[in-house]
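Practice problem: predict the structure.
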Amino acid sequence: MQSTDITVTNVIKGIEKVKGENICILDFTEMDNSVCKYFVVCDCQSNTQVNAISNSVKKVVSKNLNEKPFQIEGLESKNWILMDYVDVVVHIFKKEFREIYKLEDLWSDAKIIRLEE
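Answer:
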């Protein structure tokens, strides 16, 4: 298993621990000139939960892989937090913001894997 796959698995564990919803993976590995290898996207109901999911992902990835995010954006508003693990970028949305930005439509060339609830 590649290290990016292990990162994705641990990110998903962190999301599921705090009941993140509508988890999907955008796989860019077959695309040329992609920004990274994977996006992991989820949404939830509140700013508090957005924050809790980002903390959970950070803890799980740090504990299991000893990795910290290269960068985190959106901690101020907590409507959309982006966590950059270089090859894996995590997008945690408050539900209405995910519907506004529609990353899956924006990156429709990627292979999209939707996880079942």
